## 1
Amino acid sequence: MAVTENFDLAHIGGVELFTPKFDESLHFFRDICAMREVARIGDSSYLRCWDEYQLYTLKLTASHTNGVGRTLFRATSEDALQRRVAAIEAAGLGHGWRDPEVGVGRSYEFEDPDGHLMGIYYDTEHYVPDDDDRPALKNQASAYPGRGINARRMDHINYLASDVNKAGEFWRDVMFARESERVRLDDGRYGAWWFRFHQKSYDVVYSDDWTGERGRFHHFAFAPDSREDILKAADICLENGIYIEYGPYKHAINQTFFLYVWEPGGNRIEFANAQARLLLDPDWPVVEWSQAERAKGQAWGMKTVATFHTHGTPFVANQEEIDRKALEGH
Ligand SMILES: [Fe+2]
């Protein structure tokens, strides 16, 4: 049965993404995805999608490597924040409170069992559009860009993990997110695990990292308005030389329509649309898929691309060779 603590997290609040090709990555997110740059501080650009009420969701940071920095999650209230911080501290994974920063108030920093850096906060800065960005309707955060992929909002994040079970148990037992679906491998371990905060079928996902590394990033996803937008996104990426890894197609697990690309810095980005599908049952039982069911491929039968299990960021040594061999079936 769902309990109060299952509703302590509101949504993914922001992600820091590292890129060794800052200018090209900025072009991808700002010009191709139609995000808006709201701040530039040091080596970082802060970017937002048009239907996001907060100041920003993507902190793009120039770096010698790629991968994910800190992911921020918004709590649903100050009480919820305090409950989750107490649980994180009890689990021994807390780093401590951080002062307010761009877009968010005081936050509590921690890491998951796989070493991914995270933060949780409640106080936030609501975006106030200027004359150039004021929407026609007052119930919308900012003006509809109507260009490029036109990403509406950030939807979810998917991490690679050296131990999916440990990471998932943390999200189930400490963060109190509810499981929606999972893949159980023949050896009993989980190969992937999906968690939801509310009625959207997932917000945080962990997948098995076949390289055995800790703390790597698989992808985050933007939600465009419609399935048609994802088909259009594929054409736009093709036209702009953005590597299309997989899709457009429909997932079997959680049934989202998807497209995966690698942005110029090498990080995987997804465009995903769940259409009208929601998990309305607060006690929806977790759906478990066997290794054999998973091996059947996606919803309409297409097999999962081999690089899905090898490509992650930051790159491991010989990442390109590993990906190439995976595609060649070695
Ligand atoms: Fe995804």
## 2
Amino acid sequence: MPLTVFAAEADAEESARLRAALEAAGVSAELSNTPEPVRGAPPPAGLGPGVKVLSVFVGSRVGDELLAACPDLELVATRSTGYDHVDLAACGARGVVVANVPTYGENTVAEHTFALILALSRNVHKAWVRTQRGDFSLAGLQGFDLRGRVLGLVGTGHIGLHVAKIGRGFGMEVLAADPRPQPLLAEVIGFRYLELDELVARADIVSLHAPYTPASHHLVDRGLLARFKRGALLVNTARGGLVDTEALLWALDEGILGGAGLDVLEGEELLTEDRRMLASKHDESALRRLVENQLLAGREDVVVTPHIGFDSAEAVQRILDVTAGNVAAYLAGRPQNLVAARA
Ligand SMILES: NC(=O)c1ccc[n+]([C@@H]2O[C@H](COP(=O)([O-])OP(=O)(O)OC[C@H]3O[C@@H](n4cnc5c(N)ncnc54)[C@H](O)[C@@H]3O)[C@@H](O)[C@H]2O)c1
């Protein structure tokens, strides 16, 4: 009997590519899909009893309510590195294992980090809007060189290390903060570790590459922002919850930050849901977040992209191949890339 797989946040094309990757990995599957994220109950058509493998991306929320609607579920295969959108405790309680894709795109996300940095440092976003209107004037578009500037990295895992290498390539001084430093790699790549407080006081650009966990919730809050070098840029391609959005707006208004490049936003999942929001039981804080995000996106000193750091053709193929490999390994009794609850 073929395995029943449900893929959420996968359009027809991605679903077809996942089917091909599963076949290549030797898995014969009956695959249903929805381009929408899956959250609570009721689940979409095709997701329920009988489904053994659920594959999601970061807009979905896999919690107890959804799990209860899928009593035969055995594996959640998230097509992402981060897995804060999956309630690991709830999965564990129901014997559902969770696998991720640990390393599909360190270069991909690092390259996008520099897309945001360069957009801000050379005012590409402002220039583009003007030239679209036929305005080719230079006034107000002067940028600054990256060469000689200080890049501060919060997190030096797969992505952070790649950003460090690119930063060095631009001739930047690179500093980093990480509770688990890698001194040998720091020496080879050419960067120094500092405490976070010291890093933000020295960096011209602070870029976040740490995972979002209860411990890192609002790591960048008003207290930390007050210590930033005046006029610094903040870049976040990690997770929205690392930054207190209200404090970010405050720091931009006060001129503490000269700008921000954001691929991820706190509560970003609500941005595609404004119609549903009106009819639903979302609380006041969710509505507040929605307004704050709209305020951020409307600012000239902020560049927002809709969580596309991972989204290159090569990276998506790697994601699908590893996800299919995760499913095949699980079926063969040798599960791989399993994730465990973190503090
Ligand atoms: N924008 C996107 O499309 C996209 C794509 C992939 C990953 N991401 C995000 O990027 C994050 C980083 O990915 P990665 O592959 O480099 O992860 P990783 O696990 O390889 O590295 C994370 C690093 O952060 C460090 N860290 C943990 N807590 C920290 C803290 N409080 N302060 C400083 N450092 C801390 C860890 O010690 C580790 O070295 C992921 O967790 C994910 O949320 C975003």
